[in-house]
Write a structure and sequence with these properties.
Keywords (chain A): FAD, Flavoprotein, Oxidoreductase
Shape of chain B: elongated
Largest sheet of chain A: 6 strands, antiparallel
Strand content of chain B: under 5%
Largest sheet of chain B: none
Distance between the termini of chain B: 20 Å
Number of helices of chain A: 12
Number of helices of chain B: 8
Order of helices and strands of chain B: HHHHHHHH
Family (chain A): Belongs to the GMC oxidoreductase family.
Strand order of the largest sheet of chain A: 4-11-12-13-10-16
Structural class of chain A: alpha/beta
Number of strands of chain A: 17
Pfam families (chain A): GMC_oxred_C (PF05199), GMC_oxred_N (PF00732)
Shape of chain A: globular
Protein name (chain A): 2-methyl-1,2-propanediol dehydrogenase
CATH architecture of chain A: 3-Layer(bba) Sandwich
Oligomer: heterodimer
CATH topology of chain A: FAD/NAD(P)-binding domain
Helix content of chain A: 25-40%
Radius of gyration of chain A: 22 Å
InterPro entries (chain B): TAT_signal, TAT_signal_bac_arc
Chain lengths: 522, 180
């Protein structure tokens, strides 16, 4: 394992160790490029993960202060927890459920396909599905995605079997146990899924891909990668010519350190990444680093989400086995006849009793609430996840009043649903309920969105510098040795889960950075 | 299908380690009633206040198959917090006093003596937006449902990794679905 000097100015310094940063750092190290990852959270081993929702939340979740506003219900129910993401080495790949789907071709060109939409800020990606396909292939092989590369699907659990039976009765065709970065058989020194459940709490068997167990150790073995846990990036510095020179961070003792860099890549997820750029404002970059477009922090997307729980006469025990155990994809296409643009996926989901109480109907109480809780063993559950429309006013800003323990303004998250998001959610609630009613559900519960797990779009990719923050390689338009490497690059959110696309983009970006370094362009 | 035995199966040791349930272990372990548990009062609250607090907790999240011990466990930490923090003590005593006043105005008896739950719910709805109610409910949704001892009663089995997951313990044992 490498240890690099703070004054070494030949390094790539990455902020964040999740799907974007962890993959980028590992791939650069494998290419022989010396890299440091600064990770705000601690490093846990998979043996340390706990099958206990609140205890695990305390261990892994990003609970540093954030503030919220807007008409989304999360701002009312969880005003200081806009997102349910991870602060630990591995980032939110420790907590993710494993769904690994490719964007559809049209989802890279939503301005083209959906047209101008009032109140939305639609833009086409500067890359196409065809350009990304080779990188999707690499990502799927690396992550061991089921139903790709000859890897068989996972077996369906009870929760999936209910979903599948209801879906078939409704006439849905594309129903299966998903494309999952969870081993259905031993692969790449990791074993097969034991159907433990608790995928969100960190996989204790190692069957689920994460940068913590499947990437970073490979990078470290090369001697080219150093991961520094408990190191919170404070600001990125630059020289008079406007090139970034390093990152100032607070180490585990709270002492400020300055790590010099040849290249800086920001991968702190879509709330912290724009916060860091905005907190790095200077006389040369008065509105924040790489923000000449004014788009840093804007176009925050969180997916149209919601859940439906269905109650049956007999037991389901939905919590047994893989949390996201299967998918219905028939509503994922773009069909404006349904009354909205874009599409959505229906994916099984289960919560344990502690989180069901917290999330079923936040703020709810009395007999209607407890009656629902008492149906728990007879419940099946699904998560609805679909494309939400980018809006300039949905954005991350620096809170004018609240500061963190290092004296830096915290992130303020503002979000309002677009009418398209609302129309899609209502459609998804109806279809979700219909799936369960088709196999005898006596009651269904349309459950409101949880704090955001899919955070996207706040440093978006654009062909023209005036429309976005980064170019087709995630390189900022304004600063050529500054990159963005997480989901904040997304120009649109697509219907599906974002992680596979973040990993594919990170692999492609590593290739680009290595080439540019070799050619002495950066 | 393998069903879940609702009887208490969590070991006393693991129960003692549960943060949410740490304070009132004595009451749970011996199955004390509200009267017995708090005959002497708490650190900050009187026996009557503690009894009302338990009643309010049950009215917020009524589960008729749960004994008072679970609700005692859930609200007991408030007494400790009130002992260490005058603002918390004031929040609780004033909130409980108002409930009793409302109860006497409408029903001529204290809150805990109102016979029907539905009548007590009307009083709670009237204070739903007060800091007292909001703090109590937000805490209770964790402190009640995060007690491992009550999970089997809801058909939830809790941790599974230490048992090898559900691969050989019924992850796909559903047997009643219609053939499609």
């Amino acid at each position: 394992m490498a240890t690099f000097d703070l004054n070494d100015d030949g390094l790539v310094v990455i902020v964040g160790s999740g799907a974007g940063g962890g993959t980028l750092g590992t791939e650069l190290a494998l290419k022989g490029i010396r890299t440091v990852i600064l990770e705000a959270g601690a490093r846990h081993n998979m043996e340390d993960f706990v099958n206990d929702e609140w205890a695990s939340f305390a261990q892994l979740a990003w609970t540093d202060m954030r503030t919220t506003s807007g008409s989304w219900r999360v701002a009312r129910d969880f005003p200081n927890l806009p997102a349910w993401i991870v602060k630990a080495v591995g980032g939110s790949t420790v907590h993710w459920a494993g769904a690994s789907l490719r964007f559809e071709e049209h989802e890279f060109r939503i301005r083209d396909h959906y047209g101008a939409m009032s109140g939305a800020n639609l833009l086409d990606w500067p890359i196409t599905r065809a350009e990304l396909d080779p990188w999707y292939e690499k990502a799927e092989d690396r992550m061991g995605v089921t139903r790709t590369n000859g890897i068989k699907g996972l077996p369906g659990n009870n929760n999936f079997k209910v979903l599948e039976a209801g879906a078939r009765r409704l006439g849905y065709k594309e129903v299966h146990t998903g494309r999952m970065a969870i081993n259905s058989e031993e692969r790449h020194d990791r074993g097969a899924c034991q159907q433990i459940g608790f995928c969100f709490q960190g996989c204790k068997s190692g069957a689920k891909w994460s940068t913590l167990i499947a990437e970073i150790p490979r990078g470290e073995e090369t001697g080219n990668l150093e991961v520094r846990p408990n190191c919170m990036a404070i600001r990125i510095e630059h020289d008079a010519a406007g090139k970034v020179t390093g990152v100032v961070y607070a180490d585990e003792k709270g002492q400020l350190q300055r790590q010099k860099a040849r290249i800086v890549a920001v991968a702190g997820n879509s709330i912290e990444s724009p916060r860091l750029l905005l907190n790095s404002a200077s006389t040369l970059f008065p509105d924040g680093l790489a923000n000449s477009s004014g788009q840093v922090g804007r176009n925050y997307m969180r997916h149209m989400t919601g859940s439906v729980y269905g109650v049956f006469e007999k037991s389901v025990h939905m919590y047994r086995g893989t949390t996201m155990a299967g998918i219905i994809r028939d509503e994922a296409h773009h069909d404006p006849k349904r009354g909205f643009a874009g599409g959505y996926e229906m994916e099984t989901l289960s919560l344990g009793i502690p989180f069901m109480a917290a999330f079923l109907n936040p703020g709810g109480w009395g007999r209607p609430f407890t009656s629902a809780m008492e149906q728990y063993p007879r419940m099946a559950g699904m998560w609805l996840v679909g494309e939400d429309m980018p809006q300039e006013t949905n954005r991350i800003t620096l809170d004018p009043a609240v500061k963190d323990k290092h004296g830096m303004p915290v992130a303020h998250v503002h979000f309002d649903d677009h009418p398209n998001d609302v129309a899609m959610r209502n459609h998804a609630y109806r279809q979700g309920a219909a799936v369960y009613e088709a196999v005898g559900a006596t009651v269904t519960y349309p459950t409101p969105p949880y704090p955001s797990t899919h955070n996207m779009g706040t440093n978006r990719m654009s062909a023209k510098p005036r429309d976005g923050v980064v170019n087709r390689f995630g390189q900022t338009h304004d600063v050529k040795n500054l990159f963005v490497s997480d989901g904040s690059q997304f120009t649109s959110g697509a219907a599906c889960n974002p992680t596979l696309t973040i990993v594919a983009l990170a692999l492609r970006q590593a290739d680009h950075i290595a080439g540019a370094m070799q050619r002495r362009e950066i | 299908m393998r069903e879940v035995d609702p009887r208490r199966r969590v070991s006393r040791r693991s129960f003692l380690q549960s943060a949410a349930a740490a304070a009132p272990v004595a009451a749970i372990a011996t199955g004390l009633s509200v009267e017995e548990a708090w005959a002497e009062g708490g650190a900050a609250l009187s026996p009557a206040e503690l009894k009302t607090l338990v009643k309010v907790a049950r009215d917020i999240y009524p589960h008729d198959f749960l004994a008072d011990t679970y609700y005692i466990a859930a609200v007991k930490p408030w007494d400790g917090k009130a002992a260490g923090d005058p603002a918390t003590k004031q929040l609780l005593t004033e909130g409980l006093r108002r409930l009793d006043e409302d109860a006497r105005t409408r029903h001529k008896v204290a809150y805990a003596q109102i016979g029907w739950e539905a009548d007590r719910i009307v009083l709670l709805q009237a204070i739903e937006h007060t800091p007292f109610f909001k703090a109590l409910r937000a805490d209770l949704v964790v402190s009640l449902y995060n007690q491992p001892e009550l999970w089997p009663k809801f058909g939830y089995e809790g941790p599974s990794a230490d048992k090898g997951g559900y691969l050989h313990r019924g992850f796909n044992d559903i047997d009643w679905l219609p053939k499609v």
